[in-house]
Amino acid sequence: MPLTIESSQAGDRAVIRLAGTLDAASAESVRQAVDVALAAQPAWLELDVEHVDFMSSAGLRVVIFAKQKQPSVKIAFRKPQAPILDTLKKTGFLDAVYVIGDDGG
Amino acid sequence: MDVRIDSYATHDFAGYRFRQGKALPFGASVVGNGVNFSVFSSRATACSLVLFENGAPLPLVEIDIPPEFRIGDVYAITVFDLPIEDIEYGFRFDGPSDPHRGLRYDRTRIVADPYARVMSGRDTWREEPDWTNNYQHRSRVSFDDFDWEGDRPLEHHMSDLVMYELHIRGFTAHPSSGVSAPGTFAGLREKIPYLKRLGVNCVELLPVFEFDEWENSRTHPDTGEWLGNYWGYSTLGFFAPKAGYASTGRFGMQIDELKTLVKDLHANGIEIILDVVFNHTAEGDHRGPTISFRGIDNSTYYMLTPDGWYYNFSGCGNTFNCNHPVVRALVVDCLRYWAAEYHIDGFRFDLASILGRDQNGAPLANPPLLESLAYDPILSKCKLIAEAWDAGGLYQVGSFPAYGRWAEWNGKFRDSARSYLRSKPGTIGEIASRVQGSPDLYSSRGPSTSVNFITAHDGFTLADLFAYNEKHNDANGEGNRDGSDDNESWNCGAEGPTDDPAINALRLRLAKNAMVLLLFSQGVPMLVMGDEFGRTQHGNNNVYCHDNELAWVDWTYAETNAELFAFTRHCIALRAALPVVRSPHFPNALGGEGRDADITFLGTDGGAAEWAGWNSVLAYRLRERSYRDGTPGDELMVMFNMHWEEQYFRLTPPLDGSPWHVLINTTMPSGTDAFQPLDAPQVTGSSFIAGPRSVVVLISGSRLH
Amino acid sequence: MPTFPGTLDSLEAIRTFVGDAAARAGLDSGAVYRLSLAVDEVATNVVMHGYQENSCSGSIEVDSAIEDGMLIVRMFDTSPEYTPDDHEVLPEDLSVPLEDREPGGLGLFLTAQSVDDFRYERLDGRNLHDFRVNLP
Q1: ipTM of this complex
Q2: B203 FRET partner, CA 20 to 30 A, in A60, B398, C4, C61?
Q3: Contact list, C12 vs chain A (CB under 8 Å)
Q4: Which CATH architecture has domain B5-140?
């Protein structure tokens, strides 16, 4: 399933909502969206991945890109599906990104 | 005024007064009110001096040198009251014509003086010659009158040099160069501010001895382009600077113009090294023209087979007989002349392995010429650099007879660097030696023996190394058969120019990686003109015959590729600021002193390095030897990641306990890809991510407070 | 043995093929995902670093079989020979935060962690990647 990307900004929080598969074919578009979102130097970058059913290392690299472009930004994954949460755990990314549910915490 | 006996004429012919001359020095020299001419020939039976008015088709006079003027094999004559600036001269030799015994005397030819310090006939670059002129390349008399204003050779330490190879014409011929004297010595002078900005402190000039750009000239059958001898590896006169490289060449003032260039370069801290070609001359083989040596003493000056044919170890038709004592003396005289009269700082010897062959072509264990040069009193502070191979199968990188003085173009650095930079498996072991200055090759001599280079005038430019898988030399008109096929290049996914931003970004990053590898290795780095801003030859790896945009430096690239230029400048400045990367001794050597370095290779986990062939990650710590005494000095952490995936390096702190700071990170965009020590950002955390195919250099904080 | 064009657009189809084979072999949804992930990572490398960066093109053939209680997926391609970096990452290092990460490349690490056995071989002028998962 291809990937849809919606970006928005609320105060010091940039939100990128993704739906579909995040693999090497679709990662570049996400990276560009992150690049744009970070231009405003938000305090938070939220990746809403509730409807992302697959994420390879290409997705993790987007996170690395964000952290290198703006080391101070806090990155949050909203409602990752179980396999994606598992990937974040396996690679140690869980200790670098926040995972949030409906309550925002 | 004292009047000397030898200022009186004893003979008279056609209005010209002369006497027996002095055997020394060879060539033409001004003595009081006359000019002394002296020339050697062992097999001639007669010799006459031929004088011309400048440019005239027919001689003014031809004076037979009386047999009694001959001393040994040297003909010497002093002629009085000559208008030095208005005459040209040559010799006509009579002798046996017996090619199979190596004798090729020809009475119909006028030949140039091997020791001529000025030559005429090609005064303006590519001005069409008069092809009916029987004596094209003429000798002239020079005045040695130049105000050096206290200039002398700089005597920089070899290990402190950053060398920049350039072609006099190609460097400024393009209109974009903005100089008022394009393609000349004066033009190069106008670019000295640029060289200082870049930070190089040594220029190596492609041949500046007189050569004929019209040699083997032709037009391309399809494009109509003029093709000729652009590079100049074909000497006519070993003592004469090329008139066509001087904006004042048409006035015969090339000597002064070149000396002015040397003086100005020295005043700006830049040494000059000349590329010298003693392996062959412009006379070619038996089918070539008789310009000088062949008609003077063929069997002395050339290596000949027992049947009188020409050995061709140079690939250019003939081979100069360098270990014959007479020829050896000429080579030594030549270099002494350039060192003493032009204040040249050093010489790079093209196809130098030929200099180590005896008169029958066999390699010598103890070549007299190389030994003479190594111990010569006048050349004692000159850099001597050998291109340690020839076209006849000798490859002596690491084994060139050195006498403790010669440095070498390290072809293995080039090959190893190119393989490693394009992530070829199995290259990690060798590159680890190369970054240390190649102790495997030069163990008894030191890293300054190794001139490290990734590109040279021969082969791809740095930009093209990452843009082409194959050579594209069709513009040479030779069906793309010329030039090397073994380029160790990689086009990153597309052959030639592309709009793909990912490919272009990768190419730029690989070029930056190459600059770091070159400028942070022990040894002496050499760049090629324009590599600092991505000069391209559009995939042509052998532009020897092109006198146009293909081979010239296009200075607009300095704008479009400003990022690479800025990065290169940073690297050169860092090399100057960090003695630890340019030590005169190999790392980890026993004993040693202040400027020496210790090196430890690491794996990505901070433990032992992984040397297996599949590994493409090279990491090491380099620290100043002073640590052994407890005095903190610079410590660097260098990480080369040629893998396509990012690598996480675990960092252990520097020995002095200070935090690491980032000097170089080629993954980052311009402005954050390189820093000088005082601006270097601090590293947080105990690991560092090196991006795919990138290089990171960190420095300890000891000197940054 | 289905053949796919060696482009990024094929990743989806390759994952689907492998996912179907895994489901038919009786693997649970987690194991199906992990196998698809491993294959996706390597297929990505083949496309980008095997074909694209060497300006050649070719296809990727994928095959699955059940042998000795294991599901075996084999992937063949004709890109130039390459050697995957098989750094092992020790399990106890994974608790370390991103900024203090242990060494190792991401994609191949994930591959190795997602299947029970993973090998590379150069066979008859082709690259062969071999993925094995124990069946329940």
Answers
A1: 0.91
A2: B398
A3: 1, 21, 23, 25
A4: Sandwich (2.60)
